[in-house]
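We treat protein structure as text, and this decision shapes the records that our systems exchange. Below, we set out a record of this kind in full and without editing:

***
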Amino acid sequence: MAKKEMKIVYDEYQSVCQLSASDRNLAEAAIRATENAYTPYSHFNVGAAARLSDGTVVTGSNQENMAFPSGLCAERTALFYAGAHYPDLAIEAIAIAACRDGKLCPVPATPCGACRQVMAEYQDRGGKPMEILMVGAEKVWKFYRVDDLLPLIFDSLK
């Protein structure tokens, strides 16, 4: 037997203002995307913004449905849009923000497992690490690759 250890490295910022200009623009796009969420049941608005390799930013928001779980998370909405409209461009980064009662949540919302797996596939498809920004009012977390959010990525079909 061999004991193994995994290490996760990320940066924590106190606000969006501390981010680089390109990351700040992405985070702000994710915050704006929360306004387009359809959340009549949870009232938990999530927005995501993906920056593509040519600098294009696409956004998505969570879309709920009475026939749960027929809705879709903001992250997958943005990623699937990017994949459908820009199939030849890698996704360099994705930012995620969540609001409740019209206010940015103090602590960042983290992506669900399904979204993490979809991020992993798009990272693999793009051939380079995808950065993830999780945006909250009191802190922002920046991860440098999907592997740090999903260390044992399902890739057994390769």
Remarks:
- The two ends are 27 Å apart (CA to CA).
- Helices lie at 21-33, 74-85, 113-126.
- The first strand starts at residue 10 and ends at 13.
- Residues 113-126 form the longest helix (14 residues).
